[in-house]
Specification:
The protein is an alpha/beta fold. Helix content is about 30%, strand content about 25%. The strands form eight sheets. Strands 8, 9, 10, 11, 12, 13, 14, 15 and 16 form a nine-stranded antiparallel β-sheet that branches. The protein has a seven-stranded mixed β-sheet with strand order 20-19-24-35-36-37-38. The chain is globular.
Length: about 750
């Protein structure tokens, strides 16, 4: 709060003649500074004191510090029978590594001790990944990961208890958190067993008896093999869960209730929303109504907390769905319009995307409406132009997609997809299946570049180019790399240069293996010849002509490529090394390669890619020369120090979406900074005209993401809707064969 707002608060409190209470969500130094002048005016602070907060209001009370493993934790001192995950509090990398050794388990979880809810929670599967953690929020707990029990609908069973002044709220009623990834998105009637809830209450009462809180707080539990495990503590904090429980106590009685978070449209006022509730007959009026919907809190464009009250859980969920529609004005469903057009309608398809919450080109612009015609974007429209077009949409046979509640971003450009499958390192049975178009679409990919890998015997370039053509015919845009791991690379026409010039889909050679035991161990001459062929082929064809290099964990790292650059006339930008996030040494080498003017591609499947990006950003390196790709449908082998295969799995197609979510919600990067890595950067570096952005004359490849969760709602590829919330285009032989797309 700035001085102006503080002055307004002081005037409000001083002039009202009423008693005021300040309830902090978190007791911080900043809040205490704010509170002092208000307390002088007679306001009361409802919280525990700073000394109590310092001792109890953080997650370090759950575990022993790894430096003092013989000193019981605060929780142990209160009640040694309370179950918590096995873990330790850590203050440094040395602490973290020692705790990992003591836990002696593969999968661990890092939780900042001062993080709110699931903020900053990171999962690690390898010690190498853990070594890159940089303690962005200070001390952490390192915990053994135990798979939690699930409710019948698949949601983690995570009961929560809230208290005020040492008394548990809600009476006999208990609530479960509705968890989405690491975030709590709402609360509902608890589905935990009576014995579970009894133990959870006993744990909470024991802690309160020992800590003697004077303010609000809460406890979050998780069910593991039916047992109550204390997962988190929110001591000294007042949060939205208190609002939910207090509303239930005051207004819902014995009725069922569902409470959820939702960020309202910035153009929607609470008055308008209430009018919609009243006119639809589903407004809950405290003291009068038996069921309905009520906005507990409502901050336009920022946050909201809503409750649905009804006779049973199913009726609450039905009200929840109705509320979402009223909050979004309309769900973003394409509306088939009747009218003329005839054969022209198929030849020159027009689509109006209206009412987007934001549009990213990938940079944010002040545009809410887009006009698509055929396969391209033909207009970025203001409100007046969009309204005029919608008014004549029937006459021009236009389709209207209402994007209320969504942000519009460019479709992903993924330069590393094993569209014909990959793998094979464990023999024929380990070959991974080829990509299906609906899997690519569900992963947000509108442009892909197909690649072979280790196996160029049972996998062929002929199959790769035909698969790329098939995906393009079915609605996406697909290219290919000629070659494979081996050197000299396999080709279709007999030479790398001829493949690039004569095969429309071919952009260069890839993925040729260097510094990897599975490669051909190419020397300077071999690499120089292939790079020169790529470069000249690209010049003749007007293409990128890149040598896309798979970089293994060998000690040479990028040195084979540097030697070519040093000893020949081939520029560094001819090469595009991938998998540069494998380990700390490779990340450091990638940073140096960027300083030298090269390009870098990171595979987005582990925390190491995030660590690499943060390093590049912190060092001021050129992120416009960095690409993030998925390696989808390839194999994900893990080798030990002797080169023996120790783990093997296939790669799914949603890694880039998950990367986007992690960078936005976990690392707090803005979309304008994340999106170029998966859109405009690969399109520019690979010289793909019309791809990687949104603009007049560019290909109409768009993703509609929920503004709150960034979940993928709609995909438009080359102007055609290929995904809705209930349907994904599956191609000629897919599950929707013969079913018309939801288009005009």
């Amino acid at each position: 709060l700035d001085e102006e707002l503080l002055g307004r608060l002081k005037a409000l409190i001083g002039d009202s003649g009423e008693k005021w209470t300040l309830v902090p969500c978190h007791v911080t130094e900043g809040f205490l500074r704010l509170a002092r002048p208000l307390v002088e005016l007679g306001a009361v602070v409802y919280s525990d004191d700073a000394e109590w907060i310092q001792k109890y209001a953080n997650k370090s009370i759950l575990h022993r510090h790894v430096r003092t493993p013989d000193t019981p934790s605060v929780i142990e001192q209160v009640d040694s029978a309370i179950r918590v995950a096995k873990g330790y509090t850590c203050s440094s990398m040395e602490d973290l590594l020692e705790a990992y050794r003591l836990l002696n388990t593969r999968t661990v979880v890092v939780r900042p001790v001062h993080g709110a809810g699931g903020e900053g929670t990171v999962f690690f599967n390898e010690l190498e990944q853990l070594r890159m953690y940089d303690f962005p929020q200070g001390d952490v707990n390192l915990e053994e990961w135990a798979e939690p029990d699930k409710a019948p609908d698949g949601i983690t069973l995570s009961p929560t208890l809230q208290y005020c002044e040492g008394s548990i709220l809600g009476g006999a009623r208990s609530f479960d958190q509705v968890m989405v990834a690491n975030a709590c998105m709402g609360w509902r009637r608890s589905l935990a067993s009576t014995s579970f809830l009894k133990n959870a209450r006993r744990y909470a009462q024991s802690i309160m008896a020992g800590a003697k809180p004077r303010g609000p707080g809460g406890f979050d539990f998780v069910s593991v093999n039916g047992l109550a495990v204390l997962a988190d503590v929110d001591l000294g904090q007042f949060n939205e869960a208190h609002c939910a429980v207090m509303f239930q106590q005051a207004h819902a009685g014995e009725q069922a209730m569902f409470c959820w978070k939702f960020r309202p449209n910035e153009r929607l006022t609470v008055q308008t929303f209430w009018k919609r509730l009243r006119s639809s007959g589903c407004a809950f009026v405290p003291g009068k109504s038996k069921e309905g919907i009520f906005p507990v809190s409502f901050l336009r464009g920022a946050s909201g907390l809503f409750v649905a009250v009804a006779k049973d859980d199913l009726s609450c969920l039905a009200l929840h769905e109705k509320a979402k529609n009223l909050l979004m004005a309309n769900t973003p469903v394409p509306v088939p319009l009747q009218g003329g057009g005839g054969a022209n309608k198929k030849r020159f398809r027009m689509t109006l995307v209206k009412n987007a919450e934001a549009v990213f080109l990938p940079e944010s612009v002040d545009v809410k409406h887009l006009l698509l015609a055929g396969t391209q974007v033909v207009g970025l429209l203001d409100d007046e132009a969009a309204a005029r077009l919608e008014a004549v949409s029937e006459e021009v046979a236009a389709m209207v997609v209402d994007a209320t509640g969504c942000v519009v971003v460019p479709g992903f450009v993924d330069i590393h997809v094993h569209i014909t499958g990959g793998g094979g390192e464990l023999g024929p049975a380990s070959r991974t299946p080829e990509a299906r178009i609906n899997q690519l679409i569900d992963g947000g990919m509108t442009t892909v570049v197909g690649v072979l890998g280790t196996d160029c015997v049972s996998r062929s370039l002929e199959n790769l180019v035909v698969k790329a053509r098939a995906l393009t015919e079915e609605g996406l845009t697909a290219y290919m790399w000629t070659g494979a791991y081996r050197n000299p690379p396999p080709t279709i026409t007999g030479s790398v240069r001829r493949d690039i010039v004569l095969i429309e889909q071919c952009l260069g050679v890839g993925e040729m293996a260097i510094s990897d035991h599975r490669g051909s161990q190419p020397d300077l001459r071999m690499l120089s010849e292939v790079a020169a062929e790529c470069r000249v082929g690209g010049m003749l064809a007007g293409k990128a002509g890149l040598l896309y290099c798979h970089v293994g964990t060998g000690p040479g790292m990028l040195e084979p490529l540097r030697e070519v650059v040093r000893r020949t006339e081939i520029p560094i930008t001819t090469f595009l090394p991938t998998h540069m996030e494998r380990n700390e040494a490779l990340i450091a080498d990638a940073a140096e390669w960027l300083r030298e003017g090269g390009y870098v591609d990171l595979t987005c499947r582990s925390i190491k890619a995030l660590m690499a990006l943060k390093k590049f950003d912190n060092e001021g390196l050129a992120l416009e020369r960095v690409i993030v790709s998925s390696d989808s449908f390839g194999s994900l082998p893990t080798y030990d120090e002797q080169g023996r295969l120790v783990r093997y799995r296939a790669a799914d197609a949603k890694a880039m979406l998950q990367f986007l979510w992690k960078m936005y919600f976990q690392e707090l990067w803005p979309l304008e900074k994340i999106l170029p890595l998966v859109t405009s950067n690969p399109a520019r570096i690979l010289k793909l005209p019309g791809k990687g952005g949104i603009g007049v004359g560019m290909d109409a490849d768009l993703l509609l993401l929920d503004r709150n969760t960034l979940q993928l709602k709609y995909v438009i590829a080359k102007g055609q809707v290929v995904k809705t919330p209930k349907w994904t285009h599956a191609g000629m032989l897919g599950r929707d064969a013969g079913i018309p797309a939801p288009a005009a």
